[in-house]
Amino acid sequence: MNFGRQLIVQIGPEGGEGREFRDIRISGRVDKSPTRGPNEAVLELYNVSPDSIALAQTPQARVRIMAGYDTPRLIFEGNIIREGAIVTKEGVDRILSIEAIDGGALRTAHISETFSQELSMEQAFQA
Questions:
Q1: pTM over cut 0.70
Q2: Digits of tens for pLDDT over the chain (127 positions)?
């Protein structure tokens, strides 16, 4: 019995149409970083459709996790990391394992800066 507890997982591209999972077997954890580093989520969704698997494996796929009683609250939102959505078989179950981090732009951010004079690495990082 869940005693009113709810867990909702949403997967999809940012700004696009995704899928919502709530009445399937889901396990996992959300690790909140005590520092300014990114938070992480690891999930296992059991027996989802091939279309849902493909959606989780698309570049820039995002995951949202909501949990709580009566009205679930957002506890995690982030990007599925590259190679972070894999499928395994365990008996009759097909398990979609997902690893995600919030602040996903941190992993893919680039900067292009040109300097007219020689400077130290510290000066470059400050700029």
A1: yes
A2: 467 789 999 999 888 889 999 989 999 999 988 887 889 999 999 999 999 999 999 988 999 999 999 889 999 999 999 889 999 999 999 999 999 999 755 545 556 677 777 777 777 767 6
